[in-house]
Fold:
Amino acid sequence: MENNSPMGNTLKDKPLEGVLVIDFSQFLSGPSAGLRLADLGARVIKIERPETGDICRTLYISNLEMDGDSSIFHAINRNKESFACDLKNTEDILKLKELLKKADVVIQNFRPGVMEKLGFDYEAVKGFNPSVVYGQVTGYGTEGPWKDKPGQDLLVQARSGLVWLSGNDQPSPLGLSIVDMAAGVQLTQGILAALVRKSISGQGALVEVSLLESILDFQVEGLSIYLNENDRNLPLVVPPNDNVHSPFGIYETADGYLTLVDGPPATLVKIIGRPDLADAFKDRETEILKAREIKRIISSHFKRKPKKELLKLLDENGMEASEVFTWNQLIQHEGFQVLDMLQEVKRTNGMSMLTTRCPIRIDGQIYKAGKGSPRLGEDTLTILKEFVP
Structure:
């Protein structure tokens, strides 16, 4: 951007076109923020170590490898460029500095102190690029007894209390990297807010998020309830989310699963043919005390009935319920297909993969980008010719 302002250019198809993002981050949290900025039109250049690159290239959550890199790397780094740079090589450092002078946004997710040692922390970059928006992700912040501990998703799930909210009788983690993705969302929000301020005043910013703070914010509903309970020794949540209301939950049927959310208790009592259950719903306090018993009775009834029959009956009686889908069932359903949520992305060598698109629509426009993830150092020479004198 010639004027270092994301709002100083002619409006184009995507709102962040013209914004240059230099991304040092690895794994998922920082790169997921870079992905969202790229989806919205920003040019995102990954800074990668020669020969090995982003460690996520070899981060396998399955045996699926494509064109030499892990599937998760492809998914989280589509629509980006790769600049191979040795941060311990003086010549490479000088070239990188020239690139950083042109940056609107810088992203990094190293442990506290690492970027200071490398000479590319916020204060250092701000010295030669005063209006830069510098976003950084840490595990637990930059102070306190945990600041140097590994910021790994499962470890943070455990420390945050999140693993108690799954509805099991023992702690159980979520089956996806929810902490990393939550931090990426928070970092994106902070960067976008700082870019708006920059467009108004020209002032740069240091945007900081941590994995722990991000996932605590995602738990705001349950955590706020807990903080205001009279007895802090109670379980975080009585499984599964009985503090909402007792019918709430997922139930097994004769041929699958359904989830029941809401509806008049009297109607539910009538549907399952247990008039004696009405006493359990006579007031809120009784309902909470008898939550497990209520669920047990509902579960026993539902297990004997076909899913389709139950869903029809629940719908006709104003009860909010849904089938529990597998991914295979989901992607074949019209409700999913009408969203046009998938896209094919391709590398320059023709390797392609199917993945999700940006979930944001602006003025009704769906944002897709067919460019796949970069091969290590693929864009180094082109970037040097463009940015380095």
Summary: The first strand starts at residue 20 and ends at 23.
